[in-house]
Structures are given as C-alpha cells and as structure tokens.
Amino acid sequence: MGEVPRPQWPYRTFGDVRRPIGEDQTVSADLPVMDALERMGRENVMQLAVADNGRFEGIISRSDVVGFIAMRGGLERGGAGHDEVQQPVESRP
Fold it and tell me: Is CATH 3.10.580.10 the classification given to domain 26-74?
C-alpha cells in the first residue's frame, strides 16, 4: 500500500495492491524449518509462500518459526533432517 496515496486506500482492492510471489519468496513444503528461517533472513522477508508440486499450500512467517522453536525448546542445527531437539542448558549461578 506504500505506493498508493493514503486517501485512495478505502477504494483499493486486494487485486490493486497485491504483488506476485516470485520463486525467491517460495519454498517447498518439505524444506526444513531452520532452512526457511535462514532464507527469510537472507532474502530480508518476513514470510514465504509454501508450495507443494507447484500448488500453493500456505504462508510461513518468521513468527511461525520462532513460535515453533519456542514450543520445541530450541532446535539444534546439524544433521540432514534438522529435527533434533536441543536440550535446554541449565543456568548456573
């Protein structure tokens, strides 16, 4: 909406302001979560479209990934699957 003057906002439709999703903003449904997060950082985007066999499946956002990591207790990088849960480190005085 940044390119549309504010007084025109109430009269614009989604079709007027949408941007097509490029391949650089699309990931496959089987991409590991941490790889998606790294890609968002590299591309400087807050979300990516998820596609499976060329079919749109949904959107994944940075906040989705952060919530997933928090729920799982943190993920450890490494290994092919990137799905091993890292055990929390106990704090010591």
Answer: yes
Q: Looking at residue 14, what DSSP letter applies? A: H
Taking the model in full, what pTM does it have?
0.57
CB-neighbour burial class of residue 20 (10 A; exposed 0-12, middle 13-18, buried 19+): exposed
Residue with tokens 């590299």: 42
Q: What is the pLDDT of residues 27-82, one digit of tens each?
A: 999 999 889 999 999 989 899 999 988 888 999 999 988 888 888 876 555 444 44
The two structure tokens encoding residue 75: 């993920």
- Which residue ranges make up each domain of the chain? 26-74
